[in-house]
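re: that complex we talked abt at group meeting.

here r the seqs, copy pasted straight from the sheet so there may be weird spacing, ignore it
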Amino acid sequence: MENLEKILSEHPFFRDLDEDSLNLIVGCASNVRFEKDDMIIREGDKADKFYIIREGSVALEIQGPGKGKITIDTLSDGEILGWSWLFPPYHWRFDGHAQDRVRAIGLDGKCLREKCEENHDLGYELLKRFSQIIDQRLQATRLQLLDIYGIPS
Amino acid sequence: MKGSMQPRRFRIDKVYWETDDTFTHELIPIDEGRFFNFHPGQFNMIYIFGVGEIPISICGDPDINTRLYHTTRVVGDVTKRKQHLKVGDLLGIRGPFGNGWPVEKAKGRDVVVIAGGIGLAPLRPIIYHFLNHRDDYESITLIYGTRSPDKILYRKELEEWSSRLDMDVSVTVDAAGRTWKGPVGVVTKLIPRIISNPDNSTAFVCGPEIMMRFTAVELLKRNFAEQNIFLSMERNHKCGIGFCGHCQLGSYFLCKDGPVFSYDKLKSYLSLKEV
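got the structure back, here u go
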């Protein structure tokens, strides 16, 4: 547990979080490992966790009609996988597939949601931090949508 | 003046199809001697006889002056005709034009090369240059983003560079199927993962203007100095020598004063609809 506390406190996502909040989060955390090709999250399944990837890469995929699995993003060392646990109806919107062996810290989203309801300071801190990630991914998605490498019309 | 305006004839010696819509011509000079010297980042005006003239960056090794390489994407009338030229056909070439990449300014520093799509072509000579003069530079990083795995240019070189121990190469695509094992996402996403020493780094960026804008923003966020970010701007080059004004951007003639500029000189123009 001490080790998890150190890892989480040094991670940019949790940097400068007060000790009490960090302790609450550590209480919802565990080390997890996935083998290559494991499905870490599956579209439609209950979203009750999120992951901090320590090593390896995860492909976010969606099934396209007649196109098979399309990878729309990849996440790797240091990145956060999953925010659907924060928003009703708490279901994954994409598949998350391990491209190689993945070591991560899994955080129990359901447990954290309850703690955030009880402790709004913690809830606000977490939402601020997740908002930054959501903003970055939104900007990246907008660039993808522009299809900047396509042939200009 | 005459030398700048009169094309030299070159013969197509080889044609390489890089992707379904992009090809490279390997050319041999046949007029006025057998040599063609250029600086990384310069471009030529290429004349398809009886069709028209287009600006294309030089994409070969600057230390090889007996052959000239141009990678072309089929997008307009001239390039559509250019794609049908065969080995042995002749082209007219004026150039080299433009200032090129400031390789001297990057000596003794980490160099970060960021390419988007066909923007890898104008950057390939600078990568050759860094590798030919490896001791003059600290770390070399190449970040390349393109639309999909089948649009990746220069696969052979990318594989070769990736296998080197003294260079980091990352390739990302905007979307891919399961057979692609590399990163997926926009090129700017790779920057935070890779940049570690912004105070002693120089970035060379080429790609669609929107990509360059967002890349510069990401580099600035990582504490790069504006004057250490260089972008290559290619817009409507026509005469190549700053006379006709087609490529004028504010106070600059892109063909003569550029195409390479540091970000501090260009930033006010990058988000303008029109100048």
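couple things i noticed - Residues 142 and 169 of chain B are 5 Å apart (CA to CA). The first helix of chain B runs from residue 2 to 5.
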